[in-house]
């Protein structure tokens, strides 16, 4: 063997400081750390309200509908909202370190922004040695600058965490497969699989098969068992809750399918394209497709991913790239072909998995085989990426402004309710009762729909004991049981106030 582990690097004199392998490792992680730090900072500047860093378009952004459900499970601000069949407990665990003792939305968003930055860094770091550092840094930048990534980075929502878990799990599995003694890689496989399963078990089930197939194909039974064990930590909890709250796993799956409009053959590709304009939930997803400037990156994504595979074959890293592409494909299937509506966040795991092959393809386009830049191609690519970033920011800016206004209306309605005497303990029903109840500190109830958890008799009985109100659209009819209640206008809603339990009139 010509060179051992203690051999001197070529060109270094004895006694000169050694800069290899440690400093190379440091140089390899610095770009990733810089990307992750920039990602966190961008969230604090553009989305997080009142973080003390800047008063960007997100100032005053409160919690959204789904966020109030997850947060209420471990928050002192309001009683737990109804937890429907499609949801899982991962987000609740993620926010618990803050919401268990503080009701500050700003503190929660800063907490999540910091965690998402760390998560991105760790998910990329496990791929060192499998791809060049510059490719990983660009991949992180591409993923971190999507409006959907920035918007949901500091949000109490699960999809981005599924993507980061999948990315970390795949990278660690490849490392464990290459070195069966790498215990850290096995722990990474378990952690990534557990993160996916706790956040969204149904997504994890779609992403896991290619990972399991790779482990078994390499006869790495230990890695396969670790992967299954990580998934089981989240799936078992989901199954137990299915028996205790939903009548069993099959009934929970059926109820989840019903809530999502019935899973089956549904081409949602065009729905996802319509949602790219910043429609957080596109249901029903109608109207014309957005301007091609907004959707161009989405159309180019599979083409660049395919080019990334060709580049990987030539570079001798076919297996890592192919694993990413296959996992991205299986993750995309239910949201492109089985659900009849769209939400951009559904595809966040796909974007996370495709980021590395796409970054590899972009570097191939702008560099020669000898590593030197292609000036014309580099300039053109830089211009296109700049336009892409500008489009992403415009969509983000408009979305944050719009959602901030909607959530401010919920806060105003909650203030009106308190002024009218509906204070904790209290109950709200009707239109948008779940988020408004969280803002007001009340319980929520529904007699029908996806969040049905009470009967009319239950609501009327509760109204005799605690302040109760039904919400309806302006001028719209209240629920049948609230037709005789006193109507009061509020911010975008009508409030129907039940007679006070003490016998007095409404506030």
Structure, briefly:
The protein is mainly α and 507 residues long. The chain has helices spanning 22-46, 65-72, 90-99, 105-125, 133-144, 147-152, 159-178, 183-199, 201-217, 221-245, 249-259, 269-275, 292-315, 318-337, 348-366, 375-419, 433-440, 456-463; strands at 427-430, 443-445, 468-472, 486-489, 494-497.
Low-confidence stretches: 1-24, 50-59
Percent strand: under 5%
Residue-averaged pLDDT, rounded?
A: 90
| Radius of gyration, in angstroms, nearest whole number | 25 Å
Sheet having the most strands: 5 strands, mixed
Shape: globular
The order of strands across the largest sheet is: 2-1-3-5-4
Distance between the termini: 88 Å
* Alpha-beta content class: mainly alpha
List how many beta strands DSSP finds: 5
Order of helices and strands: HHHHHHHHHHHHHHHHEHEHEEE
Instruction: Give the proportion of residues in helices.
Output: 55-70%
What is the count of helical runs? 18
